[in-house]
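Subject: design request, 550 residues
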């Protein structure tokens, strides 16, 4: 071959290679640089509009509502509507009957002992000398959408979970996460476990060294809004049915926090500054892990936990929760500004939802002449066991009450040859005589129980026999477990099960949808957006209305 032919062949090869590479590049899957999943712990759907006037145009909620897409009628399709289950469902598209996460805590009938949802005694804490890091996702039986993203990119995508609550970081991030980090109230540091790594990354060490909690304690929790905004509630700030997390000597705002600096790191969770801490940690994770900077889509899961601590203590009608959400709006605005600067506006996708809602404080409902009250579960549990002991001559026939379910001591019942069916019927009869209870159901005979189809479906979706009780308690609307001070959640009712679902950014339309959608639809919608397999336990459907076709 002469030199002219050789040069011509070389030029042809270069041009042909360029054309092929250009074609491949043009055909490569379009994906956002980063997905950020945000769960606001205990955010009722109506908070979007109940507190709307308190949100700023530069904050997060109005910006996402104004530029993104909102699914206005998103419901949780199972019970119990509880933190661990909600975070699991959002990122797996699954329900407790499949995922195995049946509550924050449950009684394992096979192991014959109680379990915490992310408990793992085989691992150790990384970043603290406490036991806060003896946690992992091993009790989760299915994959998350983050796991599927990692699989789809040969584990080149990064998936990071951040939250104050361990379960709010671990369960969303999944089994194959690059890392999950949560707050240790004993040390004031973010920690992880040896499930993920043996040493904290340098960026987490640097974040912890800032002692941000002590800095946040230097500010009192005072009024963030004009005083007239709080007056619109029609309530004073000092109500007898509010729990006092800062002591009886601090019944109202402003709450003095300096006394906790360097001493009590747990109090930060009961203030809006816990959300400030979380937002700062999210920024640190994006910087430290270079999220959104590679050729693969990365995934950050963020759970704002302080809304739940405040909500349980003060309730949805309190000055404190109004103040908390106004401040959270500002934190979300900061996060959006940071993402615009760091990743690029239009280059990332966000979804924002909640793990559950919450009931009104029972004593507040009574004061307003609304249905509702408290269910003294501990009193009922003790009384039933005493009566069963008198009837059958054996103590502790009922092991406990978890997630509005009665757990029987089946080992005792079997060994003593006690009549289990008779005991179940006795318990149901006893429970249905209680003022707070609408119905009690034998879970093993649920299909033959006369029950509203919605309730039956939600209870069935929550039933994983190894980790559930034998009898389901259905409280009357407005009733919750406890004494009536503070409030709770966990039931099928809309105040617990109707959650916000907002979408924003890359690949997302602008608009709204009033058709029923479900928490189980979030993970498959994200999977469709990313062109990856949906998680292994998914039962939800893609919300096609959300996804832009452009």
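Subject: RE: design request

Done. Sequence follows.
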């Amino acid at each position: 071959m002469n030199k002219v032919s050789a040069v011509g062949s070389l030029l042809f090869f270069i041009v042909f290679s360029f054309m092929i590479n250009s074609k491949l590049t043009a055909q490569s899957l379009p994906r956002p640089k980063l997905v950020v999943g945000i769960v606001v712990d205990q955010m009722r759907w109506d908070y979007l509009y109940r507190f709307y006037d308190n949100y700023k145009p530069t904050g997060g909620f109005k910006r996402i509502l104004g530029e993104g897409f909102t699914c206005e009628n998103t419901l949780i399709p199972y019970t119990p509507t509880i933190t661990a289950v909600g975070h699991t469902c959002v990122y797996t598209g699954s329900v407790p009957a499949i995922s195995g996460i049946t509550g924050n805590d449950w009684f394992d009938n096979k192991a014959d002992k109680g379990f915490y949802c992310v408990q793992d005694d085989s691992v150790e804490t990384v970043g603290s000398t406490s036991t806060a890091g003896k946690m992992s996702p091993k009790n989760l039986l299915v994959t998350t959408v983050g796991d599927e993203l990692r699989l789809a990119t040969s584990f080149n995508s990064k998936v990071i979970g951040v939250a104050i609550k361990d379960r709010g970081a671990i369960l969303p991030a999944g089994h194959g996460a690059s890392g999950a980090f949560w707050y240790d109230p004993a040390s004031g540091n973010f920690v992880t476990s040896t499930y993920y790594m043996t040493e904290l990354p340098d960026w987490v060490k640097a974040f912890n060294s800032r002692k941000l909690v002590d800095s946040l304690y230097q500010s009192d929790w005072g009024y963030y809004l004009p005083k007239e905004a709080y007056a619109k509630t029609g309530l004073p700030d000092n109500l007898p049915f509010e729990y006092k997390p800062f002591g009886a000597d601090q019944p109202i705002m402003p709450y003095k926090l300096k006394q906790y600096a360097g001493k009590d790191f747990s109090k930060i969770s009961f203030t809006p500054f816990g959300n400030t801490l979380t937002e700062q940690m999210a920024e640190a994770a994006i910087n430290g892990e270079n999220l959104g900077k590679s050729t693969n889509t990365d995934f950050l899961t963020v759970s704002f936990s302080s809304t739940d601590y405040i909500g349980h203590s003060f309730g949805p009608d309190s000055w404190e929760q109004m103040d908390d959400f106004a401040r959270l709006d500002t934190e979300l605005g900061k996060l959006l500004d940071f993402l615009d600067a760091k990743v690029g506006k239009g280059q990332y996708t966000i979804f924002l939802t909640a793990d559950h809602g919450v009931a009104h404080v029972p004593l507040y409902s009574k004061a307003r002449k609304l249905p509702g009250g408290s269910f003294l579960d501990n009193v009922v549990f003790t009384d039933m066991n005493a009566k069963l002991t008198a009837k059958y001559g054996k103590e502790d026939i009922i092991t406990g009450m978890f997630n509005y379910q009665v757990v029987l001591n089946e080992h005792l019942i079997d060994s003593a040859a006690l009549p289990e069916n008779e005991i179940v019927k006795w318990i149901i009869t006893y429970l249905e005589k209680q003022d707070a209870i609408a119905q009690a159901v034998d879970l093993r005979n649920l299909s033959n129980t006369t029950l509203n189809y919605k309730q039956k479906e939600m209870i069935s979706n929550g039933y994983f026999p190894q980790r559930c009780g034998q009898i389901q308690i259905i409280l009357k609307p407005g009733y919750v477990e406890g004494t009536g001070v503070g409030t709770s959640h966990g039931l099928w009712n809309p105040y617990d099960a109707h959650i916000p679902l907002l979408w924003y950014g890359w690949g997302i339309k602008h608009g709204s949808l009033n058709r029923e959608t479900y928490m189980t639809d979030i993970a498959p919608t994200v999977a469709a957006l990313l062109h990856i397999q949906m998680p292994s336990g998914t039962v939800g459907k893609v919300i096609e209305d959300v996804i832009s076709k452009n």
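The CA atoms of residues 269 and 361 lie 20 Å apart.
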